Amino acid sequence: MPEMTFTSRWPDGRVLSSYSPSLVVHDHLTAGDSYSVADFVRRTTKALQTASDRVRARYGYPCRRAAASLAAIEAVAASQPGGSVRVEQMRPERAAA
């Protein structure tokens, strides 16, 4: 499965790197765009759950790294419910040779 990471900058200046086991995040976020904290959480929840469901369908279990990324996003969001989150980068992971 193609994997990716995406980097977000939060209202307090914090930068968070998140992992997805699928490129489906491109269907929900755009690099360079900003989203309200609530909208960012909604979009990443949908994207990471979809990605994890794809892993479950293929391998029989959900993706723990995607769940950990979502938990980190939710924790940061809980500490700063207002403002905007900017998607700094979205990049595919290189496959191990």
Helix content: 40-55%
DSSP E strands, number: 4
Shape: globular
Q: What is the element string, with H for helices and E for strands?
A: EEEHHE
Overall domain count: 1
Strand order of the largest sheet: 2-1-4-3
Distance between the termini: 14 Å
Radius of gyration: 13 Å
Question: Which consecutive residue ranges, at least 5 long each, have pLDDT under 50?
Answer: none
Beta strand %: 15-25%
**Global mean pLDDT:** 93
- Can you count the helices? 2
Main sheet summary: 4 strands, antiparallel
Structural class by SSE content:
alpha+beta
What are its keywords?
4-stranded antiparallel sheet, alpha+beta, globular, 40% helix, 25% strand, 97 residues
Could you characterize the architecture of this molecule?
- The model has no long low-confidence stretch (mean pLDDT 93).
- This protein is an alpha+beta fold and 97 residues long.
- It has one domain.
- The chain has a 4-stranded antiparallel beta sheet.
- The longest helix has 23 residues, at 37-59.
- It is built from 2 helices and 4 strands.
- The two termini are 14 Å apart.
